[in-house]
């Protein structure tokens, strides 16, 4: 069986490709390289450069490589950017998915794993977010992920396609320094950037209804997330006709202040944070219930926050050697 990994040269995608290869699965990467890095693709794994908006190119890749399953990660994913450019996000994330699904069903590919997000929940007012928690996204990015799930499920009902929609929580860390996240859009790399520029890390609001007043999030190591994709792909192969929607998180919350304190300790910096006003749309607490993933996939996260920060720091220092302390 060969799996086509769209976005497989990206941060998360490269980890999924590596995990699939290590599990003995044949893979081919499909990526437009707008943010992906070709050097992340392992030797021996074919790389097809193209957009999911190009129906002819997608179909040719599926046929040429005898693809029998797709893991779809290619997407625009910056929340703030999606607010400024909603049409771009709907084109890339929804139309790209529609074109891909059309090619998948035309060729007869039986299995499809979709990269979704906890952003579909918006600002949930619950202690633990389950898959039954109402989906009320508050950004165009979150809207595209929810609409993407609808499209995937509708296609499954109409065609018999086996599907899994994986709702990621806050992804962090790296399985190897060369696979590190090069973007500065999430908390850990944002703090790294501030520390190494001799600036204090920023906390956006400390008056939330949480124990220390800062937002609480569920962080998942990217290597654990990649293993969840392997488990989902195999579940679809061994049990055709499945229609899974699963949270992928650890079920443990860590506050922003706690995270910054741990980052300071691990990196060797000792720079207290500064508090700035809240950002619009930041919920106080978003923590997953991952029980369904454990039941359906026999999967559970193995890495803790310490692993995430330490591995992310190794990747950061590789890209920014002057950042190392001592």
Automatic annotation (TrEMBL):
Example GO molecular function: UDP-glucose 4-epimerase activity
Record-annotated NAD-dependent epimerase/dehydratase domain positions: 3-249
Protein name: UDP-glucose 4-epimerase
Lineage: Bacteria, Bacillati, Actinomycetota, Actinomycetes, Kitasatosporales
Coiled coil residues, start to end: none
Keyword NAD: yes
SUPFAM superfamilies: NAD(P)-binding Rossmann-fold domains
Names of the cofactor(s): NAD(+)
Record keywords, A-Z: Carbohydrate metabolism, Isomerase, NAD
Pfam families: Epimerase
UniProt keyword NAD, yes or no: yes
Catalysed conversion reaction: UDP-alpha-D-glucose = UDP-alpha-D-galactose
The protein's annotated pathway: Carbohydrate metabolism; galactose metabolism
Gene name for this UniProt entry: galE
EC id: 5.1.3.2
Annotated source species: Streptomyces fuscus
Family: Belongs to the NAD(P)-dependent epimerase/dehydratase family.
Source organism, top-level taxon: Bacteria
């Amino acid at each position: 069986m060969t799996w086509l990994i769209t976005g497989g040269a990206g941060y998360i995608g490269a980890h999924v490709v590596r995990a699939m290869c290590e599990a003995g699965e044949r893979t081919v990467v499909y990526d437009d390289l707008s943010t992906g890095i070709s050097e992340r693709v392992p030797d021996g794994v074919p790389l097809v450069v193209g957009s999911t908006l190009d129906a002819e190119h997608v179909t040719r890749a599926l046929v040429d490589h005898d693809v029998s399953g797709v893991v779809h990660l290619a997407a625009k994913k910056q929340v703030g950017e999606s607010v400024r450019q909603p049409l771009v996000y709907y084109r890339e994330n929804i139309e790209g998915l529609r074109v891909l699904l059309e090619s998948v069903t035309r060729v007869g590919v039986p299995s499809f794993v979709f990269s979704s997000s906890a952003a579909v929940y918006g600002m949930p007012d619950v202690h633990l977010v389950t898959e039954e928690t109402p989906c009320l996204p508050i950004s165009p990015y979150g809207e595209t992920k929810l609409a993407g799930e609808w499209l995937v499920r509708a296609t499954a009902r109409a065609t018999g396609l086996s599907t899994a929609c994986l709702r990621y929580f806050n992804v962090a860390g790296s399985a190897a320094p060369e696979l590190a996240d090069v973007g500065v859009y999430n908390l850990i790399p944002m703090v790294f950037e501030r520390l190494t520029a001799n600036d204090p890390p920023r906390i956006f609001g400390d008056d939330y209804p949480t124990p220390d007043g800062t937002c609480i999030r569920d962080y998942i190591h990217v290597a654990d997330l990649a293993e969840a994709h392997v488990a989902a792909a195999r579940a679809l192969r061994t049990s055709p006709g499945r229609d899974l929607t699963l949270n992928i998180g650890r079920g443990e919350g860590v506050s922003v202040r706690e995270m910054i304190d741990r980052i300071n300790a691990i990196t060797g910096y000792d720079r207290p944070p500064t508090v700035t006003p809240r950002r619009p749309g930041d919920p106080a607490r978003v923590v997953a219930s991952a029980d369904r993933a454990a039941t359906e996939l026999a999967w559970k996260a193995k890495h803790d926050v310490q692993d995430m920060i330490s591995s992310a720091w190794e990747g950061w220092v590789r890209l920014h050697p002057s950042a190392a302390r001592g």
